[in-house]
Write a structure and sequence with these properties.
alpha+beta, nine-stranded antiparallel β-sheet, 8 helices, globular, Cas7fv-like
Length: 336
């Protein structure tokens, strides 16, 4: 069976609330409690069950790599005037920044968008889908009194009343899912004609010889993938199989076929990324001052489609499954 998706079914446990809804009441959608007081902090709840949002999970999952990118809505490597003192990257540096991100686990799995005024965005969609994690254990303790010594009023001055009330929780037990799409993982687009360029090598390719830059990027990408594979226990012989191919490719089974310039990851490279994702999920935890959560167990299913039943399989570092190939080189299509 050709594998299109990797599905992770997760169970996690902990104590307390690690992802609040702020002072927005989840039952009414309005700020503050039913009693009219606004100094309330609510747990995220849906149908009476507390949950951790997918955005919160992804934020902590990628946090070790992403600290320099967490200002993406403010700095975000935007090419602007830096009127507010935010991080600014010049157009000249944009290729270098895109290559660094595109060759990393963070860029390949989290995705990114690098924007600049008057230019096309450099972006990659994330191949990792994460659901909200739903808690099935316990009920909220309402109106726990908390103190925020850093509380500020709407004018930015120290709030005279630093007391507030918060929904808290006891022991928790969560269930959730994560899914990796092989199709979105395996190709790094260099062509901006279809509006989804993921890496750039020159602002003006006609005036620059970019072949050397592309080869340098490939070497760095392969080295990073081999380091990931080695960290996840892939034997040296399997790490040596990790490779990427640069060229022109066409997506299979498209009504209007259009060749795209890009870089295709082989199955060994995909396997390293999948093993690293599993490793990070195995060790995932959120620790707050009044609560924590950590994963307890994970099962992995291989799927050809999300609508059919998959088969559970232990991911082995020395065994590379038959991952689907969604792109064929132009030369292969011509030979066919």
């Amino acid at each position: 069976m050709s594998i299109n998706y990797i599905e992770f079914t997760l169970q996690a446990s902990g104590f307390g609330c690690v992802n609040t809804n702020g002072n927005v009441n989840p039952y009414t959608g309005k700020q503050g409690g039913d009693d009219g007081f606004k100094n309330r902090i609510f747990a995220k709840q849906r149908n009476g069950k507390m949950y951790i949002s997918s955005n919160c999970i992804r934020g902590y999952f990628f946090e070790p790599d992403a600290k320099g990118m967490m200002l993406s809505n403010q700095g975000g490597f935007n090419n602007n005037k830096s009127d507010n003192g935010e991080l600014v990257i010049s157009s000249k540096d944009m290729p270098m920044i895109s290559q660094k991100i595109a060759s990393s686990y963070l860029g390949l799995i989290r995705g990114y968008m690098l924007t600049e005024k008057g230019g096309d965005a450099i972006k990659r969609n994330s191949p990792l889908m994460v659901t909200d994690w739903i808690n099935d254990k316990g009920e909220p303790n309402k109106n726990e009194v908390m103190v925020n010594h850093l509380a500020l009023d709407e004018n930015g001055k120290k709030e005279s009343n630093s007391l507030f009330y918060q929904d808290t929780w006891g022991d928790t037990l969560y269930h959730g899912m994560a899914v990796l799409s092989i199709e979105q993982m395996q190709f790094i687009e260099m062509d901006n004609r279809l509006g989804h360029q993921a890496v750039r090598f020159s602002q003006n390719p006609k005036k620059a010889k970019v072949n050397d830059d592309i080869e340098t990027f490939k070497v760095q990408l392969i080295e990073n993938l081999k380091n990931i594979g080695s960290r996840c226990g892939m034997p040296e012989s399997k790490c040596d199989d990790i490779d990427v191919t640069y060229g022109r490719f066409m997506k299979k089974d498209m009504l209007f076929s259009y060749p795209e310039e890009g870089i295709l990851l082989n199955n060994a490279a995909l396997h390293a990324l999948i093993l690293e994702t599993k490793r990070r999920l195995d060790t995932f935890a959120i620790v707050k001052s009044k609560g924590f959560v950590r994963t307890d167990k994970i099962s992995v299913s291989m799927r050809s489609t999300l609508t059919t039943e998959g088969f559970e399989q232990v991911l082995m570092p020395d065994t590379i499954p038959d991952y689907a190939r969604f792109y064929a080189s132009v030369e292969e299509n011509n030979e066919a």
